[in-house]
């Protein structure tokens, strides 16, 4: 196939990049809405979702703390205000069929992102991130425990031992930093931040309908200007 023919191929993969962080509740909700929007398309298999690393709170301690403690340490306020906000997001998530535990812990996510890059190198980045995040918000795992991450890795067909090795070193640290830097260059200030085939971007957790519209616009733009993708 010639280069020109490949460029105009209607089945060319459309890459959707999502800058996200593990503990971000809107990343959790937005991820599922984006998945639903893609699943509703007849060409769903054409879309490739790629997770990109972005730390919402790079100064967070490595020792896990409660969500209330983490928010108050970073932003001030009081525990009741934090829990009120959490309950609002919990109700929204549950209306969409997503479990949402209020007993989650918070800690620095840099090491988690390093494991995501190992998983991505093995073709399992999104699957690993999604499984870990879903189980975290369901209150089923402590993702800051190396053994818990190793078990999640094994659930998606990766090596738990390799995860432990990554966590014991600084492997993939440069890749995590590079993702964050690229995100900031693209204008990321918060997550989720979704980039559609490097054509359009959406900040925040959009509705299923808005994601669906963005997917359609991306496909249309790709068809009219394939070389830009």
TrEMBL record:
Transmembrane segments: none
InterPro entries the UniProt entry points to: DSBA-like_thioredoxin_dom, Thioredoxin-like_sf
Domain DSBA-like thioredoxin: 15-215
Entry-linked Pfam families: DSBA
Lineage: superkingdom: Bacteria
UniProt-listed CDD domains: DsbA_FrnE (cd03024)
SUPFAM superfamilies xrefs: Thioredoxin-like (SSF52833)
Name of protein: DsbA family oxidoreductase
Source organism (scientific name): Leifsonia virtsii
Organism phylogeny: Bacteria, Bacillati, Actinomycetota, Actinomycetes, Micrococcales
